[in-house]
Specification:
Layout (H helix, E strand, L loop, with lengths): L1 E5 L3 H11 L4 E6 L2 H10 L1 E6 L6 E4 L2 E4 L4 H8 L2 E4 L6 H9 L7 E6 L17 E4 L4 E3 L5 E3 L5 E4 L12 E4 L2 H25 L5 H5 L2 H22 L3 H15 L8 H4 L3 H4 L7 H9 L5 H14 L4 H12 L6 H11 L2
Parallel strand pairs: 1-2, 1-6, 2-5, 3-10, 6-7, 7-8, 11-12
Antiparallel strand pairs: 3-4, 8-11, 9-10
Length: 340
C-alpha cells in the first residue's frame, strides 16, 4: 500500500508516519524546503516514546517539496492521502491537492478540530474523511520526534466508508459525538488540572496533574463524566473508560513538558456554556451525578479571570457562561468561589 502524508511536521512524521510505516510505502510532502532537504539527507529519523517504549526508526520514505514535479505522480499512485497541516492552512492544502489527487483516492484531513475535512478547499471538503489527532508530539532534535505512544487515529466513516485497509485506524460513525466526548473528557480534565493547578501555585502541568488532591478530583470527575457520556450518547462503557484513562495517562506523564500557564489561557472562553467546564458539569448533573470537580474548577477559573468580590464573580460567570444568577449551577460555583 502507498500512503502520502501532506504536512511532514511533528504530527505528520511523528504520529501518522509511525502508525503507518510498518504497513505502507510512505511519501512525506511539505512546503518547507529546508525540512524536506533534512529528511532526504538523513534518510531516516527516530520516534522516541514518552512512556519508555522502544524507540522506532522511520526509514525508506520519499520526501518531496510541494513544488517538486514528482509530487503529482506520487499522489496519483497513493492509495490514501493524509493531510496534517495547521487549521488555517487546510483550505490552501485542499486547493493544492484537488488538482493532483484522483477522484477515487481516499483523503483524510487530520487535526484536533470538530470536523477537519470541512476546512479543506478545492471541493475536497465534500468527499474527504476527518481524522482526530489526540497524540502529543514534540521535536526531539533536528528531525527526530518524541511523542506519546497513542495507539490509534480516529477516522470518520463519512468520506472513508471505513475502507482504508489500514491497522491503527478506529472508524467512527458519528465524528461529532467523538469530538463532543473529547470536550467532555480530555478538555474538561485539562481545565481541572490547569485552573486548580495554577491556584495551588504549580508551574508545570504534569506536576499539577499528579498532585494528590487534583488526582482525587480527577478520579471523581472521570467516574461521573464516563457514566453521563455513556448515558447520553450510548457509548460502550469500556470504550469510554479506556478513552478517559488515555487522557489521564497523558496529562500525568512528566516526560511531556507543558506549562500550567499555556493550558490556563483564555479562561473567559473556557467558561462558555458549551465549553469544557460548564457543558460537562451540566451533562453530569442532567444524569444525576456530582459536578463538584468542575464547580471547583469554574471557581478557580473565575479567580484567574480576575474576580475581585462575589458580585464581580457572579457577573463574570453570567456574562461568559450564560448561566443566570438564579441557576443552581451558577449558585454552586459562586458558593465555591466565596469559600476559597
Amino acid at each position: 500500500m502507498k500512503i502520502a502524508i501532506v504536512g511532514a511536521g511533528q504530527t505528520g512524521r511523528g504520529f501518522l508516519a509511525r502508525l503507518f510505516a510498518p504497513q505502507a510505502e510512505l511519501t512525506l510532502i511539505d512546503r518547507d524546503a529546508a525540512l524536506i532537504d533534512r529528511l532526504r539527507a538523513a534518510g531516516g529519523y527516530r520516534v522516541r516514546f514518552f512512556d519508555g517504549t522502544q524507540p522506532m526508526r522511520i526509514e525508506g520514505y520519499a520526501a518531496l517539496h510541494t513544488d517538486d514535479a514528482a509530487c503529482r505522480a506520487a499522489l496519483k499512485a497513493a492509495d490514501a492521502v493524509f493531510v496534517s497541516v495547521r487549521p488555517e492552512n487546510l483550505r490552501e492544502a485542499g486547493e493544492w491537492l484537488a488538482a493532483r489527487v484522483p477522484e477515487a483516492t481516499s483523503v483524510v484531513a487530520c487535526e484536533n478540530a470538530p470536523l477537519p475535512a470541512a476546512g479543506l478547499g478545492g471541493g475536497l471538503d465534500a468527499r474527504a474523511a476527518s481524522g482526530a489527532i489526540f497524540c502529543t508530539t514534540v521535536n526531539d532534535g533536528d528531525i527526530d520526534i518524541a511523542g506519546e505512544n497513542y495507539p490509534s487515529l480516529f477516522v470518520s466513516v463519512q468520506g472513508s466508508n471505513g475502507a482504508l485497509g489500514l491497522s491503527h485506524i478506529e472508524y467512527v460513525d458519528d465524528f461529532a459525538v467523538l469530538m463532543q466526548r473529547k470536550l467532555y473528557t480530555y478538555n474538561a480534565a485539562s481545565a481541572i488540572i490547569a485552573y486548580l493547578g495554577i491556584e495551588k501555585g504549580f508551574l508545570e502541568y504534569a506536576d499539577a496533574a499528579n498532585d494528590p488532591v487534583i488526582d482525587g478530583l480527577l478520579d471523581i470527575f472521570y467516574g461521573e463524566v464516563n457514566r453521563a457520556v455513556c448515558a447520553r450518547y450510548g457509548v460502550d462503557e469500556a470504550a469510554q473508560r479506556d478513552f478517559a484513562a488515555l487522557s489521564k495517562r497523558k496529562f500525568q506523564n512528566r516526560a511531556i513538558a507543558d506549562s500550567i500557564e499555556r493550558n490556563a489561557a483564555s479562561p473567559a472562553r473556557k467558561l462558555g456554556r458549551d465549553e469544557r467546564i460548564i457543558a460537562p458539569a451540566l451533562l453530569i448533573r442532567a444524569h444525576g451525578g456530582t459536578a463538584r470537580p468542575l464547580i471547583e474548577t469554574a471557581a478557580a477559573a473565575l479567580s484567574y479571570l480576575g474576580a475581585r468580590d462575589e458580585a464581580c464573580a457572579s457577573a463574570l460567570l453570567e456574562t461568559h457562561s450564560d448561566l443566570p444568577p438564579d441557576d443552581a449551577l451558577h449558585q454552586d460555583i459562586i458558593k465555591a468561589w466565596t469559600g476559597r
